[in-house]
Please model this.
Amino acid sequence: MAKDKKLVEAITSMSEDFAQWYTDVVVKADLIAYSSVKGCMIIKPDGYAIWENIQHELDRRFKETGVQNVYMPMFIPESLLQVEKDHVEGFAPEVAWVTHGGLNELQERLCVRPTSETLFCDFYKDIIQSHRDLPKVYNQWCSVVRWEKETRPFLRSREFLWQEGHTAHATAEEAEERTIQMLNLYADFCEEVLAMPVVRGQKTEKEKFAGAEATYTIEALMHDGKALQSGTSHNFGTNFSKPFGIQYTDKNNQLQYVYQTSWGMTTRLIGAIIMVHGDDSGLVLPPRIAPTQVVVIPIQQRKEGVLEKAAEVSERLGKVARTKLDDSDKSPGWKFSEAEMRGIPVRVELGPKDIEAGKCVLVRRDTREKIECALDDLESVVPALLEQIQKEMFERAKAHRDSHIYDAHNYDEFREIANTKPGFIRAMWCGDVACENKIKEDLAVTSRCMPFNDQEHISDVCACCGKPAKKLVYWGKAY
Ligand SMILES: [Zn+2]
Model:
């Protein structure tokens, strides 16, 4: 038992120190290792398998909307990066440069892509000539580099994995439609697959993407009450097509600029899954994203027939769920805590007495509830249980999120909430960046988004300056 205890004691409790808890889970659940390059991480098999599931499911959903995958080079010539002014200003401070090729200094520095708008624009300029060439709905799966000063596994690292979609359209309406379509796709993915409720909305001018006309975002609330931007979709209008000269001839033989969008989701999502669902025993994975959904753990496995039966059960379950058999020579107690640490949604416990009685015990990772199940019923009970867990995990996360949304009607209330209640703060805003800056400076919260579905007027005046209010804004401390 002493050994079993050790695994759980290896992680700091959430209430004691959330940041340390997070780091402990990331390492003890075997998701990452630190690398010799500061600020970069090695994603281990258990971590990468989660990313692969995210990738497969997102990619499937993308393709249903007509997205095609391409691959662009990882280097951007300096002159190309500088074509769009806001864009270069936004990214310059965190760009990594290649100055040499072999022993020779390059005539022009190359930046390692922090994002690929400029490359796609340069490409689209060449391949789009006529209205018949539109729309272009391309996406690439790749890594990008941003030289961040402070890094944390999954949440902020100097190199991270993502997808970036880049589209070109004939009309402004079509571009706006695509921008919103992708944001909704992201939101549905988070809610249906990651069991993570999100607020859909628009970023303020101050918080929008460098070079965008409008940025839309989905914001999730982590267990500690901090927000995490979980996916963004940008409408560029003609902000890039004009400086890059991406034009097409329309049906009347007139030259027109294309309207563009871009949208991305990253390995940050893995950090979000950990911080929305995890507990003091480690990771808790929603079944739809869990690389292993069921682990079969034999009890007294040296007794005759136990391992054989466990293997048989595991094989049967393997046809209806992603199943693993843990037949290692560790103690069952150790295997239980390991399965808990790794967040496997259901474990099946199977000992000699169970086998004799033709049953086994199913244990839910999320609630630890134990359920007796006849061996004959496993193929129907387990998939239904996984679906139930998925649904209840979403409901729990939503209840937690909803109970951490607070309304501030004036600045005193705003200050009081920001200082004492972790969560989202709903407050009216006049639209002036001066108020946004003041709120950030005074209260250390930023505007997360102006929600689409929640634009009720909770007051007529800006909670900061008292002038007439334009928008309801969700505010919060953010990762
Ligand atoms: Zn104001």
In short: The mean pLDDT is 95. Residues 294-384 form a domain with the Rossmann fold fold (CATH 3.40.50.800).
